[in-house]
Amino acid sequence: MTAPEQRDGTDAARPAPTDPPPPPPYEHRRGDRPHGRRQAGASQAGASRGGSADPDTGLPADLPADLKTGIPGDVRPGMPDALPGDLGGAVAEAAAEGVLGRTYRALSIGIVSVVFLIAFEATAVGTAMPVAARELHGIPLYAFAFSAYFTTSLFAMVLSGQWADRRGPLQPLATGITAFGVGLLLSGAAGSMWVFIAGRAVQGLGGGLVIVALYVVIGRAYPERIRPAIMAAFAASWVIPSVVGPLAAGTVTEQLGWRWVFVGIPVLIVIPLALALPQIRRMASGPADPDAPAQPYDRRRIRLALGISAGAGLLQYAGQELNWLAVLPAAAGVALLVPAVRGLLPTGTVRAARGLPSVILLRGVAAGSFIAAESFVPLMLVTQRGLTPTMAGLSLAVGGATWALGSFVQSRPRLEPYRERLMVSGMVLVAASIAVAPTVLIEAVPVWIVAVAWAFGCFGMGMVIASTSVLLLKLSAPEEAGSNSAALQISDGLSNVLLLALGGAAFASLGGKALGAAAHGTAATGATGSHPMAFAAVFLPMAVVAVVGAWVATRVVVREK
């Protein structure tokens, strides 16, 4: 589930004696956006077609108020005050459609296909990574191969947010997909672990551009009432890759070699691009408000983004070296990270202020703890229990289905009032799954325990991750969607980097380096020595972080006074 998605330009880490009152949800700040639009149904809109027109909007008079503002893009810049009756009926019909309705079908299929390929790459790479690291003599750098992706994506997310807000999401999306494919080819052709890591870094640049651009597409092209459905479709697009990806990648790795797992994917990217890009150009291109003067790029924020990426990379490098000289890059990393985090995340994020800051913090805590733990699951099963890469990958396969199920559960309209409880429950499941996974290090514990635990953990992640995305868009003005989506993804990516650095340092210090040295002379499917404490030092701290996430989830909803 490696995945790959806010900023008000304010100080996120500055302490304050009390939490300032958070701003009300965006719907409550706009008189033309009534709260609770998700209750309207398609049958109501259909009944309104052909009736009299509202003199203020031109829409059918009996169309529910929530659908009158739910047309594609959820804003109507430049639209005349009144629409002809026939056109009003057409707009109402578009507003009542689902994600596979005529208006949204091609766009939905295209962007979900993009996510599908990213998901396939993530699950396939996770399966092939233990063999690639062993062949390139890079097991001590194992965590770096994952965190390099997130490190460079941090900068790309900020750039993509500004790019999409000013020019629309089309250009950053196309550029990101191209960089993603180039990075795959570079990793597939690598002759050393550092070249492999460089390829992963290029992938991260592409992935950061893509994920933020996709959020902007959703915010502009889809009305709020069906955004949970498209988020659920994103999660569902992980199901087939999660089941087929490990099997396909394991088979390719064992029969043809791990390199083919990387070089075979870029060719497939052309198909969803051809389907999605024309629809994005039609429905979500250009700035959010075409009539507003063009805003220059915020160079300060771009410099901060470079700082956050460089700082995260230095911390990761210091964590891998584990000697006194590593103190220097670690100190430099902290010096770069602190002001960058303060400038790129909303005020109150670090202290979990209610509302948007806690939504953004929760995304990082959930993704970071889960991904840092999951990255080590295949390596643990291959080296400690002697599983083949295919079997180790398949132990996580069912998680794709349960992740999609969790996302589907949160998308049900009748559960909307209980979203906070769903998110708390999801984080409890995540913490439990991470804590249970290392019990497989005990020889008497069957390996299928990992599959069961991860299935429950992925169900919790499906509820939490999709819910943070829904709440972020709900609390964001259209012109802020790109920036806030970037902050959400920065929190996600930065937590991944920092927690992978922490886990990687603990792993290396408690036996990971010895494990890598032993691996050089072993067969691809053989165990490489017993170092259970190295793995336990990764999983147990991540479980504690997930427990903290359960508390943060209690603060995502603004309490009405």
Low-confidence stretches: 1-91, 518-528
Helix content: 55-70%
- How large is the count of helical segments? 22
Instruction: Give the CA-CA distance, first to last residue.
Output: 39 Å
Assign an overall shape: globular
Q: What would you call the structural class?
A: mainly alpha
Q: What is the CA-atom radius of gyration, in angstroms?
A: 23 Å
Let me know the number of strands.
0
In round numbers, the mean pLDDT is 75
For this structure, the quaternary state is single chain
* Biggest sheet character: none
| Secondary-structure element string | HHHHHHHHHHHHHHHHHHHHHH
β-sheet strand percentage: under 5%
Membrane topology: Multi-pass membrane protein
Domain Major facilitator superfamily (MFS) profile: 107-561
Region (Disordered): 1-82
Keywords: Membrane, Transmembrane, Transmembrane helix
Q: Which secondary structure elements does this structure contain, and how are they paired or packed?
A:
Blueprint: H1 26-29, H2 42-48, H3 65-68, H4 85-96, H5 105-135, H6 142-167, H7 170-188, H8 193-221, H9 227-236, H10 239-255, H11 259-263, H12 270-283, H13 299-321, H14 327-344, H15 356-374, H16 377-385, H17 389-394, H18 398-410, H19 419-436, H20 448-474, H21 481-519, H22 532-552
Helix pairs in contact: 2-4, 5-10, 5-12, 6-7, 6-8, 6-13, 6-21, 7-8, 8-21, 9-18, 9-20, 10-18, 13-14, 13-21, 15-19, 15-20, 15-21, 15-22, 18-20, 19-20, 19-22, 20-21, 21-22
Structural summary, described in words:
It is a multi-pass membrane protein. The chain crosses the membrane at residues 109-133, 139-161, 173-197, 203-222, 229-248, 260-280, 301-318, 324-345, 357-379, 391-410, 422-442, 448-473, 494-515, 535-558. Residues 39-53 have a biased composition (Low complexity). It is found in: Cell membrane. This protein is an all-alpha fold and 561 residues long. Helices cover 66% and strands 0% of the residues. The protein contains 22 helices and no strands. It has helices spanning 26-29, 42-48, 65-68, 85-96, 105-135, 142-167, 170-188, 193-221, 227-236, 239-255, 259-263, 270-283, 299-321, 327-344, 356-374, 377-385, 389-394, 398-410, 419-436, 448-474, 481-519, 532-552. The protein is globular and about 60 Å long. Residues 1-91 and 518-528 have low confidence and may be disordered.
